[in-house]
Specification:
Elements (H helix, E strand, L loop, with lengths): L14 H11 L3 E3 L6 E3 L3 H8 L28 H9 L13 H4 L4
Length: 109
């Protein structure tokens, strides 16, 4: 099976193992600090603006704008591929707690 977010192909992925990968490992996903929902890193600002229901959520106006990484604040480019490259290549985003594995980065080089 293959992760639809980071494209990691892993023969050990079962439906349950893939769910665990999404929940704890996939470098393209993150846990919202306010509501604890797992969201795409690239969609975090949108999540804060439209989806997060936590009363203590960060102000979306100070969240990283389009083209910037919400984790490190670095400029990454506006496309989904740009964000994917930032999160998966060269050890991934320096502020990400979920680091890429070789199986996920093979197709981006």
């Amino acid at each position: 099976m293959t992760c639809v977010f980071c494209d990691e192909k892993n023969p050990d992925f079962t439906a349950g193992r893939l769910d665990f990968h999404y929940w704890r490992e996939c470098p393209m996903l993150m846990e919202c600090a306010a509501c604890h929902t797992i969201v795409e890193v690239a969609e975090y600002r949108k999540h804060l603006l439209k989806e997060c229901t936590a009363p203590n959520r960060p102000n979306p106006k100070v969240a990283a704008p389009v083209g910037m990484c919400p984790l490190c604040g670095g400029e990454v480019g506006r496309s989904a591929r740009d964000m994917k490259r930032h999160l998966l290549l060269g050890g991934g985003c320096p502020k990400a707690t979920r680091k890429p594995r070789a199986a996920a980065v093979a197709g981006l080089r």
